[in-house]
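Notes from hallway chat w/ T.B., transcribed later so I don't forget. T.B. wanted the structure written out for a chain they're using in a teaching module, and asked if we could keep both sequence and structure tokens in one place. Agreed to drop them here.
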Amino acid sequence: MTSIEITITEPGERLDKLVTALLAERVTDQEISRVRVQQLIKDGDVTVDGKTGKPAYRVEQGDQIVISVPDPPPDAPPILGENVPLDVLYEDADLAAINKPAGMVIHPAAGHPTGTLVNAVLGRWPQTATVGAPDRAGIVHRLDKDTSGVILIAKTEDARRNLVAQFKARKVQKRYLTLVYGTPATPTGEIDAPVGRDTRQRKKMAVVRAGRPSFTYYNVLQSFDEVSYLEVLPKTGRTHQIRVHMAFIKHPVVGDTVYGRRKNKGQIKIKRQFLHAASLTLTSPSTGKLITVEAPLPADLQSILDQLKLIAEGKPGE
């Protein structure tokens, strides 16, 4: 912790501007920006005469300013490549697409430092270590831990930028398959509801008025007694969007214990959410041609679907 104390002799300057200039001179081992300084002030690390300051406060002669700057966190160890098997669905010089299994985490973190998709990608394509952020290994987007399916890896920086631009412009067509409780009121539909942080539970997302615009289209492929099998086409890519939207229309994803039912009811036995990224259609960064990458429904989800069809046909024991 670095502590700096000064007495103001020249009044009139904004507190955040003064502190930014001061820290830029005296703290050389950290990046100092006005935004960071404003956060320090809001966190109570900058006081004026013993009281928490405000960024826009104009300092007065004689003010006693105390600035406490936390030490920078230690450098994180480099992420290492690992020999983790990958189901590669498509590959060319610029791009790879893999079928992520349910249960695989994308990035290393405290609870899962190894065995992640980043470790696996670095093990197979070491050159991705310099593509995008150091901890991304060229991975362009993400899937939840318990969602399976297609995920893209850029093998060059130019390809990454191209793909990021396609996602941002909503030019990548995403198709998911899911099982939800109940049957939607119409066989096809659009959910237009903004998604943002849940104001009561900050670790969750929710449909909130101040959220970001979010659009999800769905088609009912088959309905059963208690559940329906849907094709879902999200047009935006908000965190947990499909799960939040389906719960919002009262048809939560089967197996989703966060936004749906805490326990599965009826004849369905599932250990994870029934949600699978079945395909992505995009423009190849190298050829400019449209390509579609598909991932078959994994065995655990296919088994549930097959059982539901047998029950519907009156053959539950087969």
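Follow-up for T.B.: The radius of gyration is 25 Å. Might be a good example for the class.
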